[in-house]
């Protein structure tokens, strides 16, 4: 998969490596691990990101410093490698500068539907993470170059993009890679886990507390609904980003078939996230509300008010629960 | 490790397999997986547990029924195999019956300090789980016998005993085993994860909501304290067991060095759980309160009242934070 990449990259000297804006564990992990690989193979490397690196990922910058791009620093590079983004605009304002300069750009990513803006495109949308792909680069070239810092960086990306190896995207290969990373990096999971998941603020805890208190069950406890309101965000000084992952709480209620997160704080309506834990197809459900998605995860908008939205959503779900003979997953 | 076990078990016909009382994922997973192995190798098998199997584990009984022991059923067995308990009393009232009959008993377990009550003792206290050990049995005898049901059972035990492969007990081998289980069982993690972690009740959600609301930070945000009170348990109709895992919430606050869970609902005092996410040694800390444990996790009791307990605990922690130069893990 990386043979062309490994061959062609030899034509360049100073590589600028970009991770996407609003960075997460996978893009930072991939950026650090490929930068270390480039350094070990005698390239000059500068790692860039337009945004701040989240607090819980900053330890990764001990291995590779990630800098804010400036025209001066960018001008030193003769090739750019973009990781974990499927189009140039995912990397921020730099995209325009890059387009103007028409410098060569390679990309490595696992998001579907990559744009055709890149000179080399390594895009595998059924990979769990971009870090899983970067492991493949080491594997094709020289696993012996995978040291503790690169192992921990790749581990960080795989873990954060797979909900700690719990998502459907996790294959036997993903897990075998993690086993090898623990061995080569000579570390135990908790050493990294405690740092990457320890990024919660007190306002986020208060918001979660309030949201948990709203969970309601409907239709003989088959549907769980959690709500987050504008008042909650205002009282706690939080925003939409602080609700990330909240839907897992109603989804963890025993015996439910589907869970719904109702976000009643957007200016243009109520945002509905639907998750299924049965053969209830939430894509069908979301479509009745003018939205869509997948069987297990879908979304829609409702004009409100919240009580009416919940009533209507539950009514549609109740119909589905009756129409099909539902079974839980196992 | 299993050579004597595999050789000696051939002398018997009908094996009674026990998992420990108050069963969890690891003992049930191990029990189901070894019962399937015994069945495949033409033994008669009856699986026993004195307690109810938790709702989120009941799907495992599709492969192997787990029965309440009766004298009649027990009398059919000529050998007992006890999994995931280091002493006979861990398996309930049956222990007395077994002692009286002096029937042969084998054990497989990963808890430290096994008793000497067993005829064969397979005890590995640095294994992540008993399920990891049962995988070793298949491995030594016949990995080809590891089918979907046994793979999912072993996966359940390893995952639930390691906090989804996040604990210090997880080695490269543990993770390699999980990779093999996913391959042999031909399943993706979410299929099992969604079921085993979907066991929460609405009262547990309310209790968590209340507990999150109590989180306080001390000593320049280096110590996070969460409290659970008798009033909270009473208002939600919950008990001590419903606080399991709560300490991970104060422990996930950014930049803290240690987290404390204060359980103010026991009749005989306030129970304090201490966790470290730095080089703060909570064992030293707990000892000053007359308790103890390990560097990263320890416990103690305080006579109360709660405000005084928190004040004293924080004071001891503050002294430690000053005495040693603290660093976070990475």
Strand order of the largest sheet of chain A: 3-2-1-4-5-6
Look at the helices and sheets of chain A and give the structural class.
Answer: alpha/beta
Q: Which oligomeric state applies? A: homodimer
Total strands of chain A: the figure is 12
- CATH class designation of the largest domain in chain A: Alpha Beta
Brief digest:
The structure is a homodimer of 330-residue chains. By secondary structure, the first copy, chain A, is of the alpha/beta class.
How would you characterize the overall build of this protein?
Two copies of one chain form a homodimer. Chain A has 330 residues and is an alpha/beta fold. The first copy, chain A, folds into two domains: 3-196, inorganic pyrophosphatase (n-terminal core), CATH 3.90.1640; 202-323, Diaminopimelate Epimerase, Chain A, domain 1, CATH 3.10.310. Helices cover 39% and strands 19% of the residues of chain A. In chain A, strand 1, helix 2 and strand 2 (44-48) form a beta-alpha-beta unit. Chain A is elongated. The two termini of chain A are 36 Å apart. At the A-B interface, helix 7, helix 8 and helix 9 of A face helix 7, helix 8 and helix 9 of B. Chains A, B: This is DHH family phosphoesterase. Chains A, B: InterPro entries: DDH_dom, DHH_sf, DHHA1_dom, Oligoribo/pAp-PDE_c-di-AMP_PDE. Chains A, B: Residues 223-316 form the DHHA1 domain.
Overview features:
19% strand, inorganic pyrophosphatase (n-terminal core), Diaminopimelate Epimerase, Chain A, domain 1, homodimer, elongated, alpha/beta
């Amino acid at each position: 998969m990386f043979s062309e990449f490994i061959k062609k990259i030899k034509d360049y000297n100073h590589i600028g490596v970009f991770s996407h804006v609003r960075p997460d564990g996978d893009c930072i992990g991939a950026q650090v691990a490929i930068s270390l690989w480039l350094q070990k193979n005698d390239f000059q490397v500068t790692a860039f990101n337009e945004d701040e690196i989240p607090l819980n990922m900053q330890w990764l910058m001990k291995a590779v410093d990630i800098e804010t791009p400036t025209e001066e620093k960018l001008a030193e590079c003769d090739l750019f490698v973009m990781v974990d983004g499927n189009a140039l605009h995912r990397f921020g304002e730099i995209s325009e500068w890059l387009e103007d300069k028409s410098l060569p750009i390679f990309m490595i990513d696992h998001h579907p539907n990559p744009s055709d803006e890149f000179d080399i495109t390594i895009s595998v949308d059924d990979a769990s993470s971009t870090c899983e792909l970067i492991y493949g680069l080491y594997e094709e070239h020289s696993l012996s170059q995978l040291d503790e810092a690169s192992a921990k960086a790749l581990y960080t990306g795989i873990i954060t993009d797979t909900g700690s190896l719990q998502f459907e995207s996790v294959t036997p290969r993903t897990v075998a890679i993690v086993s090898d990373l623990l061995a080569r990096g000579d570390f135990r999971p908790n050493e990294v886990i405690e740092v990457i998941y320890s990024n919660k603020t007190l306002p986020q805890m208060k918001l979660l507390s309030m949201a948990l208190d709203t969970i309601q069950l409907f239709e003989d406890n088959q549907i769980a609904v959690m709500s987050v309101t504008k008042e909650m965000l205002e009282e706690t000084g939080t925003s939409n980003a602080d609700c990330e992952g909240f839907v897992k709480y109603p989804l963890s209620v025993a015996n439910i078939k589907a869970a719904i997160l109702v976000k009643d704080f957007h200016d243009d309506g109520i945002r509905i996230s639907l998750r299924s834990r049965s053969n209830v197809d939430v894509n069908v459900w979301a479509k009745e509300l003018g939205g869509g998605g997948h069987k297990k995860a879908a979304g829609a908008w409702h004009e409100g008010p919240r009580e009416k939205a919940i009533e209507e959503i539950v009514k549609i779900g109740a119909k589905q629960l009756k129409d099909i003979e539902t079974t839980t997953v196992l």
